[in-house]
Design a protein that fits this description.
This protein has about 180 residues and is mainly α. Helices cover about 60% and strands about 5% of the residues. It has five helices and two strands; from the N terminus they run ββααααα. The chain has helices at about 25-45, 50-70, 85-100, 115-140, 145-170; strands at about 10-15, 20. It has a two-stranded antiparallel sheet with strand order 1-2. The longest helix is centred in the C-terminal third of the chain and has 26 residues, at about 115-140. The protein is elongated, with a radius of gyration of 18 Å.
Length: about 180
């Protein structure tokens, strides 16, 4: 099987279930941004991570594939796929709670950055927020599964915490934001 099909040459693509839509469709923007996010999470995993970071981020990558499929498949489709669930949101909440046990409570905003994995995870967090905005926009004009937005909202929190955790693991001090007055 060839990697190219030529079916998108006219600027359209297929959703799961076969419906053709323009590549500029809000649903395509949402799951395309999720794909970009998954790639940045993969970049973060290419660096030396803590055992906890590796474990959680690999699971997150799997869940991002599920999320992408969920967004690519309208709930009304007869295509059977796994969808993001409340359990997936709970997984992120539990991971946040576990990682935060080892972190100092924040009293100030911190500057995104730090170690290579930490800085990359901060970039992933901002891409996650963009994916969330695209998914919210999609939900205003199209029907999406109810847990997609909740999952992305929690995921950005998780990515912030795991970035902090990896910076601590790498013994890189967080820089606080000190606005000029």
């Amino acid at each position: 099987m060839k990697i190219y099909t030529k079916t998108g040459d006219s600027g359209e693509t297929s959703l799961f279930g076969g419906t053709r839509v323009p590549k500029s469709n809000e649903r395509i923007e949402a799951y395309g941004t999720v794909d970009e996010l998954n790639s940045f999470v993969g970049l973060a995993t290419s660096y030396e991570l803590s055992d906890a970071g590796t474990k959680y981020l690999r699971k997150v990558q799997e869940l991002l594939f599920t999320l992408g499929a969920d967004l690519a498949t309208p709930p009304s489709s007869q295509t059977r796929i796994d969808r993001i669930s409340e359990d997936d949101v709970s997984f992120l909440e539990d991971a946040i709670d576990e990682l935060e046990k080892d972190l100092e409570t924040l009293k100030n905003f911190i500057l995104p950055g730090g170690s290579q994995p930490g800085a990359t995870l901060h970039v992933a967090r901002t891409i996650c927020r963009r994916a969330e905005r695209a998914t919210v926009a999609c939900s205003k004009s199209d029907n999406i599964s109810e847990n997609c937005i909740k999952f992305l909202n929690r995921l950005s929190d998780f990515l912030f915490v795991v970035a902090r955790y990896e910076n601590k693991h790498a013994a890189v001090r967080e820089e606080t934001w000190k606005p000029d007055k």
